[in-house]
Amino acid sequence: MKRITLGIVILVLIWGKAVEAQATAQGLEVRIDSILAQLTLEEKISMTHAQSKFSSPGVPRLGIPEIWMSDGPHGVRAEINWDDWGYAGWTNDSITAFPALTCLAATFNPELSSQYGTALGEEARYRKKDILLGPGVNIYRTPLNGRNFEYMGEDPFLASTMVVPYIKAVQQNGVAACLKHYALNNQELWRGHINVEVSDRALHEIYLPAYKAAVQEAGVWSVMGSYNQFRGQYCSHHEILINKILKDDWAFDGVLITDWGSAHDTREAALNGLDIEMGTGTNGLTTSTENAYSYYYLAKPFRELIEKGEIEEAVLDDKVRRILRLMYRTNMSQNRPLGRMNNPEHLDVARKVAGEGIVLLKNDEAFFPINPDKKMTIAVIGENATRAMTVGGGSSELKAKKEISPLKGLQERFTQATILHSMGYASGPPAYGKVMPSILDADSLQKTAIRIASKADVVLYFGGLNKNHGQDCEGGDRKDMALPFGQDELLNKLIKANRNIGVILISGNAVEMPWLPRIKGLIQAWYLGSEAGHAIADVISGDVNPSGKLPFSFPHILVDNAAHHYGELSYPGDGTNQYYKEDILVGYRWHDTQKIKPLYAFGYGLSYTRFKLSRIKTDKSSYTAGDSVTLSCDVANTGNTNGSEVVQVYVGKPNSKVKRALKELKAFRKVEIEKGKKVSVMLTFKTDNLAFYDESISRWNLEKGDYLLYVGNASNNITKELKINIK
Ligand code: BGC
């Protein structure tokens, strides 16, 4: 009886909360309407476009604040000038740099994503930002894309699962996340105009799910339209992408913002869902006598169309309503926390994410970890041992209050060792939009490095890419998949000089590794932010047992990647159009289905201990639509070190009536297990998530019949296959 009463009380409370929330929401809409009624046409128009590089105007007469935005997505960017891209030279805008989103994705740990979002949101709030321009969830389609490091890998389920907690946590601070770049901005080359042709199926199954999750599960408050076109229309004012899918189908109630300069037409911008126009080719007052922002597509030209009666004022009202809604959630909210910045807790989060995201790819003869208490000589070779990686890369560049280099991290931790350092190669300084080769002599750099390596007990090579134009950097793609700056040649010589060599690649992208069979250890370290060197030393010393997993496949060579397999029309296109010919077979879906072995597979990553999966079973063998499938399994840590493992569940549909990938990730869980211990893990997913996007009915379609579950710890290391049936 008591239980029933308690149950009823709880139900009433929940219902009460729901009613209250609805009333608050309704109350909010009433307040928004009352403000809207007081605004002049001029004032409303002013709110729909920029007043400076990173702000849009408020309505001073009514005390409605301006909206201040900042990049994103790995930390809060330094202040930019009012009218141009120069840095404003403030002295109070250095921040905590968090690891790049590829690293966050590689943790396979949604809880960490939440901690990341909280810390980043607090910094944005302290810096008085209302909108943080990030995160980005463009799918990793080609290893050449200069911006892959800012995104969450090649799998829509992984990206969806990791992006939701980030957004929720950022927004808890009264700061809107701005999800970018919607959509299909999967390369930097020709990003300003390239027209992407892709099937509805690939669009819905591969390229949109993370955006959908961000809208429907995280309730993201703003979205950024991308530069490129899709089916002949610019994505920042797109009938299908914005009006139909984002705003109608997904019921997005927030603000659609352009990318900086991605609006192209007033009528389309007005009618196809663009709410705030930013960055359109203007330098404010510096290039014209009248304020140039007034000539934005959504400024004077928009007002004139309304005044002529060619566009209804209701179209403008909808935009302003959305903008005011975002403001009530951010800078007009009564209970906004104050935020904080550069505090030790934020550095802890940065270090933890970095440590958990680093991926151990090869470890012959237990090369790693290296005992930090041993007297020995370590040769640290490579430019990336000392290069600042928060600098360069485009809009995600950061002014980090502190950035520990790998060399510094090793010096602090390996106090008993003699550490020798040599650059080995030089890439040149970062320069926006162009390559500036180094003036240093490559030959003598090589010679010194080889001399030092031959004297050492251990060689640690820090190479990979960097944030220069043409590497991991916005505004351009890589030219090929090889290591740049003569690194392959240098590595070959170093290996000859000393076989006891481990390589630490710092990059946001896959590279070719012709020297791989001849090195002992390989670590994929990403752009790790403020605590980079500490996190790398944590893993190399064994203080942290690596548990990161690759969020994208590393092909052996470029043409093994699906987009490149189909030639130039597929990537990069002919300069006007490009065709995603691989369709749904992106990343591991391609490698698996076509039986083209990758060099390193999606979901792969080693540990200093060993894990064993056993007793893998589902709760039932037969399900119907709407059911949840629960899978349980035991994971034992059979080695000598505590560690974490990621259990991964992939599902495939044999004998499907449509083309399918062999298998697709549908659930994963990271578990921490002490050495010698075993834990039980449960994973669930909805049968509805096994549906394919049926182009013949423009809806998701759940095929009946048998499905195969593949359970393992990497897409290429499956411990058990199980069959289930959907009736
Ligand atoms: C980038 C965006 C960025 C914006 C503002 C654009 O060039 O594509 O990601 O948020 O600039 O810096």
Largest sheet: 6 strands, mixed
Could you say which overall geometry the principal axes of the C-alpha atoms support? Answer: globular
Number of strands: 26
Query: What is the average per-residue confidence, as pLDDT, rounded to a whole number?
Result: 96
| CATH architecture annotation of the largest domain | Alpha-Beta Barrel
Which strand order spans the largest sheet, edge to edge or round the barrel?
A: 1-2-3-4-6-9
Helical segment tally? 18
CATH class of the largest domain: Alpha Beta
Derived from helix and strand composition plus strand pairing, the structural class reads: alpha/beta
Poorly predicted sequence stretches spanning 5 or more consecutive residues: none
Gap from first CA to last CA: 39 Å
Q: Could you please say which CATH topology of the largest domain applies here?
A: TIM Barrel
Q: Helicity range of the residues?
A: 25-40%
Please, what is the CATH homologous superfamily of the largest domain? Glycoside hydrolase, family 3, N-terminal domain
* Portion in strands: 15-25%
The ligands found in this model are:
beta-D-glucopyranose
Mind telling me the C-alpha Rg? 26 Å
Count the domains.
4
Structure description:
This protein has 727 residues and is α/β, with parallel strands linked by helices. It folds into four domains: 1-35; 39-71 and 108-329, TIM Barrel; 353-552, 3-Layer(aba) Sandwich (Rossmann fold), CATH 3.40.50; 609-726, Immunoglobulin-like. 29% of the residues lie in helices and 20% in strands. The protein has 18 helices and 26 strands. The chain has a six-stranded mixed sheet with strand order 1-2-3-4-6-9. Strands 10-15-14-13-11-12 form a six-stranded mixed sheet, sandwiched between helices. A hairpin with a 4-residue loop joins strand 23 and strand 24. The longest helix is centred in the N-terminal third of the chain and has 37 residues, at 2-38. The radius of gyration is 26 Å and the shape is globular. The two termini are 39 Å apart. 54% of the residues are buried. Beta-D-glucopyranose binds next to loops. The site of beta-D-glucopyranose (BGC) has 7 residues, from loops.
